């Protein structure tokens, strides 16, 4: 759907014909995009596709050469300051002021965003609790681990209660528990109506948090999908499947004796087969069970997002 540059359609982000060159390199080539409120949108694409450039433009940190962008209804060409007040931004690498304490650090940004003084310390405590850093109140930023600094970055991006939150590779540097917590946090912000836009290369993780995926390639949007509409079989309709069984030798024998299972490779405790359609996979599972192979696992080898992403990058 083409975006109308002259009409505020109530989207969190509207971009129309956005172009940005770095010398001869076209990082964005007439990109069109809309992002709704109340959802987590994943920005996915190969290295150099233009994701970071796009996020920098949306965050008002880089001016496009041409095109129109509206964030939270504000045209960035004329009302960038208002847009900044409505958007939260977490870059992939960000500096922290090591000599400040954790709460001074957040207070600095709260002041920059003109959070009322009387509300400041309450909000900082709430944010520190949200990102599980409350015990670091009063401690210097330099004692935080990398993952903790990343979480402080999330708190910083939320200090002015933005309606649009953009995060570039937020999960890098986070341990598994922190990733789950970040996922829950982003989901709950979306449930509160915030538009969350997140770029990452960790597709399995995006798959668990995103409502929508925007595929970016060569400076343009090449696909927009609801996560519910993606299947593990991807656009080709076929994928590889992982099979596990209580007795891997019995499984191997049953697979070897059955035509049409595709290429078989060994896995610890089982095998990977295919590519197969969902129907073929269901037939195989039924045949294994009928042949008394005690199957303990049977699942697509790659997630739906990964399958879609790989199909996109193969086409090029
Ligand atoms: N400051 C810059 N100077 C020159 N070229 C740049 C600059 N920033 C980006 N580019 C180029 O613009 C293109 C898009 O880069 P961008 O960083 O936006 O891609 P990306 O999708 O974020 O990639 P990655 O997944 O590797 O982070 C690339 O060809 C890159 O080399």
From TrEMBL:
A GO molecular function annotation here is: ATP binding
Q: Which organism is it from?
A: Actinomadura miaoliensis
- The protein's superkingdom reads Bacteria
Its family remark reads: Belongs to the ABC transporter superfamily.
Q: Does the keyword Transport apply?
A: yes
Domain called ABC transporter: residue spans: 13-243
Show the taxonomic lineage.
Bacteria, Bacillati, Actinomycetota, Actinomycetes, Streptosporangiales
What is the official name of this protein in its record? ABC transporter ATP-binding protein
Keywords attached to this entry: ATP-binding, Nucleotide-binding, Transport
């Amino acid at each position: 759907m083409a975006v109308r540059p002259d009409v505020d359609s109530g989207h969190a982000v509207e971009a129309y014909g956005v172009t940005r060159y770095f010398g001869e390199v076209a990082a964005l080539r007439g990109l069109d995009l809309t992002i709704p409120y109340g959802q987590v949108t994943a920005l996915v694409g190969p290295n150099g596709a233009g994701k970071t450039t796009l996020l920098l433009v949306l965050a008002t940190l880089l001016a496009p050469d041409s095109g129109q962008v509206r964030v939270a209804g504000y045209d960035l060409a004329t009302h960038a300051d208002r847009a900044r007040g409505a958007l939260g931004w977490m870059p992939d690498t960000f500096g922290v002021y090591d000599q400040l304490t954790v709460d001074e650090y957040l207070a600095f940004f709260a002041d920059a965003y003109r959070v009322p003084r009387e509300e400041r310390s309450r909000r900082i405590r709430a944010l520190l609790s949200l990102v599980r850093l409350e015990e670091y109140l009063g401690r210097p930023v330099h004692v935080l681990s990398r993952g903790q600094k990343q979480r402080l970055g999330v708190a910083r991006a939320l200090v002015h209660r933005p309606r649009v939150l953009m995060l570039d590779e937020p999960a890098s540097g986070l341990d598994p528990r922190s990733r789950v917590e970040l996922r829950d946090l982003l989901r709950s912000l979306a449930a509160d109506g915030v538009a969350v836009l997140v770029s990452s290369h960790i597709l399995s993780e995006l798959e668990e948090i995103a409502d929508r995926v925007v595929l970016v390639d060569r400076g343009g949007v090449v696909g927009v999908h609801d996560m519910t509409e993606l299947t593990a079989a991807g656009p080709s309709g076929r994928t590889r499947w992982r099979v596990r069984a209580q007795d891997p030798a019995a499984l191997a024998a049953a697979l070897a004796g059955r035509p049409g299972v595709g290429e078989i490779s060994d896995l610890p405790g089982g095998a990977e087969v295919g590519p197969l359609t969902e129907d073929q996979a269901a037939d195989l599972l039924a045949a294994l069970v009928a042949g008394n192979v005690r199957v303990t696992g049977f699942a697509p080898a790659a997630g739906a997002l990964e399958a879609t992403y790989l199909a996109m990058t193969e086409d090029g």
